[in-house]
Design a protein that fits this description.
By secondary structure, the protein is mostly helical. 54% of the residues lie in helices and 2% in strands.
Length: 180
């Protein structure tokens, strides 16, 4: 080895870049998500696909009864991939998130917290308040996962209009002879 190329033995000829040396995803992801919200990315996608052939993914809602877990994350991410893929394939593919705000899981938490000797009206009120609190927590977590959707207008089974729509649909099912 000559004296001339001794210093250059381990040098790499890499281009200069403005990319950071570390990903720092924990710091960068919230900034990306904030940027998507500020730029109204979901709304712009919806507007761009208006009039295209529809693709509707009916999302079975999670219970509004606690923090999300890995099953929730996998479920939402896979559905988000499908919706985004259909959107990029030219479909009008809206995603309306929702939550199941009724049932035993919510009632058990409220009973555990407030006891069993509560008047029914007060119990329902406490269940609704607990479910609403959990919806907000889960919504933030799903948004943090990068799931795009109409997060400002989710469907909630505790919404009185939704309850009335369910009863009307059940009435139609019964009237048409499909309920045994």
């Amino acid at each position: 080895m000559t004296e001339e190329n001794k210093d250059s033995k381990y040098k790499l000829n890499l281009p200069e870049t403005s990319f950071p040396m570390r990903g720092d995803l924990a710091k960068r992801e919230p900034a990306w998500l904030k940027s998507w919200q500020e730029r109204k990315v979901y709304e712009r996608i919806r507007k761009a696909r208006k009039g295209a052939k529809k693709f509707i993914l009916h999302d079975g809602p999670p219970y509004a009864n606690g923090d999300i877990h890995i099953g929730h994350a996998v479920n939402k991410i896979l559905k988000d991939i499908i919706v985004k893929s259909k959107t990029m394939s030219g479909f009008d593919a809206p995603y309306v998130p929702g939550w199941d705000c009724h049932g035993l899981p919510i009632e058990l938490v409220v009973e555990k917290t407030h006891g069993k000797n509560i008047e029914p009206a007060k119990f329902r009120e406490l269940c609704r308040a607990y479910a609403a609190e959990q919806v907000e927590k889960q919504k933030k977590d799903f948004i943090r996962l990068g799931v795009l959707g109409d997060w400002d207008n989710p469907y909630l089974t505790m919404n009185f209009k939704t309850e009335a729509d369910i009863m009307r649909a059940l009435g139609e099912i019964y009237k048409n002879g499909y309920l045994y």
